[in-house]
Amino acid sequence: MARQYKTSYKAYSAWNYEKEIEDLNAASEQGWQLVKGGCFHSRFVKNPDVRYRYQIDYCSPDDIGRYIETFREQGWEYVNSTFNGWNYFRKPWDPALPEEEYEIFTDRESLREMNGRWVRFALGLGIALGLFTVIWIIRMILTPQLPILAQLIVYAAIAVMLLRGALIMRNPDSSKSRRGDGRLLAVYLLVVVLGTAATVWLGVARPGFNTNMISESLSEPMVDNRVNEFEVKYKDNYYIDLKIDAKAPFTFSIVDEAGEEVFTTTAEHFEESGIKQKLSKGHYWLSMSCDDGYDMNFSIE
Sheet harboring 77-81: ordered strands across? Predict the structure, then answer.
C-alpha cells in the first residue's frame, strides 16, 4: 500500500532558504504536497493531481490575519508558520504563466527588506552569544575545566554561525559564500548538539559534596579518619573550598585508591576558596588527622 504521508528531516540555513524552496517545488512535482513546513522537518501528503510553487517569507507580523490576507489577495495560499518567524506560502503552478508570477519579492529592495529583518535578529542574538563567549573565555582562564570548555565551544559555534549568516543575508546577490552550505550547517549543528550533550554529562558527572563537622574534643588522637568517598569519572581540574578553625594542628588530605595523598594541608586556622586540584579518574576519600583533643570547626565543599 502506497504511503499517503511522509516526513522529510532536513535542516536549512536561513541565509540559504532558496534551497528549501527548490526542494519543496521538486517534491510538489513528484506529487508530494506540503502540509506543514518546519525548521528541521516538514510533513507532506501524496497528491499527484496538483502541482504548486512555494515561497517562504521571514516575518513576525503584529496582525497575522492581515498579513496572510495580503498574500491571499495576490493568489498565495498560506500553509503554516514556524515558531521562529518563517511563513510558508504556495500557488498552483501553471506552465503558461511567467516565472515572475511565482515570486513574492518583485524587486531587490523588497528582498533586501526581508533579509534585513532576519539580519537584525541574527546580529542581536549573535552579539549576545558573542558576549557570553567572552565571559566563558574569562571563566576558562580563571578556572579551567572541561564543562566550561564544552559550553564555550557551543556558544562560539552558534555565534559564528549566526554572524556568518547575517553577513551572507546582507548581500542576497552573493552565492559564493553559500557553496557547501549544507555540509557546513551539518557541522555546526553537530558541534552544537555534541557540545551541549558533553556540557550536560560533564556537569552531572562531576563529584560534588558539602561536609561540615563541629567537635568539642577528642578522647584520643584521630589518625587518617576517612569520610566522604567520592568518584572522579574523568580527569580534570576540580576546585575545593576549605575552612579549618581548630585549637590544635589539624591535617586534611584527599587520598586516592592507592592510599597516596593527592592534596594535604596542616593548620589550626585555614580558609581558602577555589583551590585547584587536578584529579585522575578513580575513587578518593577525605582524610582527617589530629594528635590532640581540640575544639574544631571544619567545612569543605
Answer: 52-58, 86-92, 77-81
pLDDT band (50, 70, 90) for residue 296: low
* Structural contact between residues 61 and 21, judged by C-beta atoms closer than 8 angstroms: no
* 205's grid cell: 558527572
Cβ(23)–Cβ(10) below 8 Å: yes
Q: Give the cell for residue 277.
A: 586540584
Question: Residue 209 has which C-alpha cell?
Answer: 559534596
Kindly give, in sequence order, each residue whose CB lies less than 8 Å from that of residue 95, ignoring residues fewer than 6 positions away.
Answer: none
Taking the C-alpha atoms of residue 43 and residue 36, their distance in angstroms, rounded to an integer, is 5
Strands 222-232 and 261-279, how do they pair?
unpaired
Q: Which one, of 96, 94, 114, lies nearest residue 104 by Cα?
A: 114
Cβ atoms of 195 and 157 within 8 Å: the answer is yes
User: pTM for the full model?
Assistant: 0.75
The per-residue pLDDT for range 158-181, each reduced to its tens digit, is 888 888 888 887 776 555 455 567
Cell of 225: 579518619
Helices 146-169 and 108-142, interaxial angle, to 10°?
160
What is the end-to-end Cα distance of the chain in Å, rounded?
A: 63
Q: Would you state the cell numbers that stand for residue 223, as one nine-digit string?
A: 589518625
Contact 199, 151 (CB under 8 A): yes
